[in-house]
Amino acid sequence: MANKDQQEWYKKFYEGTFLVxxxxxxxxxxxxGLSPEDKGEMGGLLxxxxxxxxxxxxxxxxxRKIDTAQLQQWGKDLQxxxxxxxxxxxxxxxxxxxxxxxxxx
Length: 105
Description:
By secondary structure, this protein is mainly alpha-helical. The protein has one domain. Helices cover 74% and strands 0% of the residues. The chain contains 5 helices and no strands. The longest helix is centred in the middle third of the chain and has 22 residues, at 36-57. The radius of gyration is 14 Å and the shape is globular.
């Protein structure tokens, strides 16, 4: 991370705040009900995705390529996908990963 401010924002992204769930909590919600094997695979994919998203989102608003509205939409997308099963969730995680990579390129 470039500076202490970005580290603090990344921590808020990952851990959340009193009012907002963080990536860690959202991951747990998304992974509920999956088999242990699927949890392991999807958890790894979500960790990788979360690191990329969080590091970009923690940057100053005028330079970051991912905003809060996108985070909220992606959270809803992942939650909806998880309710449709592990195959749908895996597909959605991979799509989001590609989308994030394109934004960061």
